[in-house]
Amino acid sequence: MPSEKVDIPPTCADFLSEAVARHWHNTLGGALVEDCARAQVQVLEVRPGTDLPASVTHTLGHSPRPVLIISRRPDAGQALSAVQAGAAGYLHALAHPERITAALAALGRGQVWLNMETLRALTRSAGKGVADHLPETLTDRERAIVAELATGATNREIANRLHISENTVKSHLKNIYDKFGVRDRTSLILKLRET
User: Fold this and answer.
1) Which of 5, 17, 26, 93 has the fewest Cβ atoms surrounding its Cβ within 10 A?
2) From first to last of its 195 residues, what are the pLDDT tens digits of the chain?
3) CA 57: distance to chain centroid?
4) Domain 120-194 is of which CATH architecture?
5) How many CB atoms lie within 10 A of CB 179?
6) CB-CB contact of 74 with 90 (8 Å)
7) Minimal CA–CA distance to 21: which of 50, 47, 43?
8) What strands lie across the sheet with 41-46, from one edge to the other?
């Protein structure tokens, strides 16, 4: 089955390894631009470990475009640090080309890209005290769903715990996203962290 065509935004990158640079050049071709002023997304490769170099945290705090952090040995702690510093995404440096293009397309649309392990860690850290800071416009059911979401629960787990269908969870999540002015689960979690 042919894969769906994805619009890859112009992307600039700073690679540490030749193998990673070659992989990304082969994946992105002409979408990889040398001049970051022409880019819509920026990619930074970091060394494995939880401490981000000062130059990376500076870039994350000052970049006018979304930044995707990549690492040859992804680590949930490092990903969490990157997101807390302002990264819009985190990905394995040698990810499958379809994941790379999907991540860049998501960032180009203003979305966030994280793997499930990182998303759950972020959700757990955001979830502490969330119920105390929810807008009054949320219904009781929406509040219950956000509380479950804050534990890192999947849609299926939320549905089982609240004795509703998975489609009902999705419907409530859409309403919650609208009320928070976000487009997806990850952006909602990041928004909850701000409250």
Assistant:
1) 5
2) 445 567 889 999 999 999 999 999 999 988 889 888 889 999 999 998 768 888 888 888 888 999 999 999 888 788 888 888 889 999 999 999 999 999 999 999 988 888 777 776 666 665 555 656 677 889 989 989 988 887 778 899 999 999 999 999 999 999 999 998 888 887 887 777 666
3) 17
4) Orthogonal Bundle (1.10)
5) 15
6) yes
7) 43
8) 11-14, 41-46, 67-71, 89-92
Domain boundaries for CATH 3.40.50.2300 within the chain: 11-114
45: β partners: 70
Cα angle value 7/19/30 (rounded, 5°): 30
For residue 67, give the H/E element and its range: strand 67-71
Pair 146, 192: CB distance under 8 Å: yes
CATH code 1.10.10.10 region(s) in the chain: 120-194
Among candidates 90, 116, 94, which has minimal Cα distance to 103?
90
- For domain 11-114, the CATH superfamily is Response regulator (3.40.50.2300)
Over residues 56-75, the pLDDT tens digits come to: 888 888 889 999 999 998 88
Contacts of 187 (CB under 8 A, 6+ apart): 111, 112, 177, 180
Burial class (CB in 10 A: 0-12, 13-18, 19+), 3: exposed
Bridge partners for 164 per DSSP: none
Distance from the Cα of residue 185 to its chain's centroid:
9
